[in-house]
Amino acid sequence: QYQAGDARLFSQVGERRDGGLWSAGKEGFLMHGPYVALPAGRYTARVGGCFPQVVPGVWLDVACEKGGRVLAKADWREMATDSTQFACSFELTVPASDLEVRLWVPASASVRVDRLVIEPQALPVPSELPSALDAIKPIEMDAVPTPNSALIRKR
After folding, report:
1. Do the Cβ atoms of 101 and 87 come closer than 8 Å?
2. Per-block mean pLDDT, blocks of 10 residues, the chain (155 long)
């Protein structure tokens, strides 16, 4: 978990005050960072704060390789069910050395970021595992070919 005042979270267009990172009437990345290494796996990035209004143009993405590889992106209009959290799930198929979460805001947005949490997703537990024995079918030994099948005669 990274608090808004964490030195690993940066802003192009925001102001740090009262423990949060506030939009300041400018378009751009309100938050980006923390540029951390993560192993391959499935994760969810959650930005906590205050998102009081649905404004077109607010989005969150997760990227690596200096922002060149976007792993996932979420539009606020599609996620506007919770005014205190914005989340985006993603999968790393290979480890990342510089993972960043970026929150873009238009000039008209009124947003405060309090924290960023990047957490691994729990692996799904299958309700019923197929038995390996179910896949085994008996075979007739007479039907098994051998390298010397032509030389073997049934008596």
Report:
1. no
2. 94 94 95 97 93 80 96 78 80 96 93 95 58 46 49 47
Cα-based angle 127, 133, 134 (whole degrees, multiple of 5): 70
Sign of the dihedral defined by the CA atoms of residues 93, 43, 52, 27, in that order: negative
pLDDT value of residue 113: 94
Q: Residue 106: CA atoms inside 13 Å, Cβ hemisphere, count?
A: 9
pLDDT (0 to 100) of residue 103: 95
Strand partners, 50: 112
Q: Quick one: how far is CA 115 from the chain centroid? A: 16
Whole-structure pTM value: 0.75
Q: Please tell me the distance from the alpha carbon of residue 21 to that of residue 93, in angstroms, as a whole number.
A: 31
Q: Are 102 and 90 in contact (CB under 8 A)?
A: no
The per-residue pLDDT for 30 is: 96
- How many residues does this entry show for the chain? 155
Nearest alpha-carbon partner for 83 in 110, 105, 106: 110
Q: How far apart are CA 115 and CA 102, in angstroms?
A: 12
| Ramachandran assignment for 133, one of left (phi > 0), alpha (psi -120 to 50 degrees), beta (any other) | alpha
